Fold these 3 entries.
Entry 1:
Amino acid sequence: MNYYYPQDGNFGSYNLELYFDDILYANGTTIQWGTCEKGENLRNLTIVNTGDINLTVSITTTDLPLEWILEWNANNTLLKPSYEVKGCINLTIPQTENTWHAWAFSLNGNA
């Protein structure tokens, strides 16, 4: 006796969309902070999971000056497919700063 069971499946897709102050930014696009104050600079950051796999979303920085602080209150949120998370992103610039430095942040989605 032999039972035969063909197998079928597919791979899930990973995809996130980032909205900074309600403007969609594609991967690799420079984020426009506009005029910033020394101290706190609050903006809206919305992430949408447009894939079909649950992702934990977070933000990490690259080359952020040592005394500058970037915080997103929705860091490490589990985001299901077709759901979004809205949060406040806060860039704190020291009162002693006089130069806008070259830096970046990355949006991470971990399954």
Note: The CA atoms of residues 18 and 47 lie 5 Å apart.
Entry 2:
Amino acid sequence: MLYKFIERDHLNSFFNNGCLRLGTLYDFKDTILHGETRGDTSEAEHHLIRDAGESLILSPKKYEPLFSEMFDVQGVGEITFSNLSIVAPRKTEDAFIFCSSYIFNEKLFRKWLHEENLDSCYKISNPRGFFSEISKAIESSAYFYANLNITYTEEYIEYNSAEASLNPAFTKHKEKYDWQFENRSVWPAKGPYGNLKPWIIHAPKAIQYCRPFASIDDESVAYYKA
């Protein structure tokens, strides 16, 4: 199950006519527009790091992750590095996204209320069916890529760690964002496209996989009847 923290008007709009907002990866880079809680200047990218240690030799016949990206050694020469760290960016292309939470508790609900004035929550009881209906509603323009929980990382990811192979669409900095317990679905656009913009869509068949779950007023959490 997943949980969507949302403004009450938007909750009503979804359950009345299936209206949903898909954001974009790059749009959420704008912290002026979205603030520091929803916005993230590092959205859709992360950085790998490798330390050369006491001695690392780079030659035309020897590929070394990250170092070979930065230095082009040709002929019969070689370069020896020591006490040097290399940081390399990894980025992904823009795409449409839908974010929710993979846990629910009242502390988290109140945090979203204080940070973003999100006073309502609905439960997605069948995420597979829910995202399938969204995919059908936008299939002429975008295709489903993946649904994953966000992996929260350090500012720099060790080049040989399991996290290094993750798509940057599914990583965020642990120190600032791990309280959000985010789940994310991603839909890249089909064919050539310009700058993607957030998209208001209608997917009324997705409603069947959800129900209003809770609301909050004056710090008091009330639960809808199942």
Note: The chain has six helices and 16 strands.
Entry 3:
Amino acid sequence: MQYPLIDRHLLANLRLVHGAYNGSMMLLFLYQGWLGLGIRRARKAKEPPPFPIIKRHRRLGPVLVILGGLGFLDGLTLVLLDSGSILEFPPHLFAGLTIIVLLIATYKISRNIKGPDPLYRDRHFALSVALLCFYLVNVVIGIGAFL
């Protein structure tokens, strides 16, 4: 098999699309984090629950998990079409894998949040902060891989 499997110009454009998509995903995750932080602040201040924010946060979370996974698969597909080796950009790959693991863990833990018990809420918060940090790191690594 001769690599790249598709035209270099198309591949370059698809890389730009991948970067723009995952950059916008990072912004959506920052927005999701902002919503979660608003919910957390209200709970810590013993204020009434902000139900519209809670509803938006709960509705958007699972969608973002799926879209984040699609961004990872998109990048993986592009690398396979370009070189045939998923280890072409190892730091970007492993940061992406870490993001996927954090997405799944955050989603799974969020399903256990019930009542006033802070155990799962604190774990969800910690994993979410780690997720946002890895998204920022991966965007920087991805820009470096692109250049």
Note: The two ends are 26 Å apart (CA to CA).
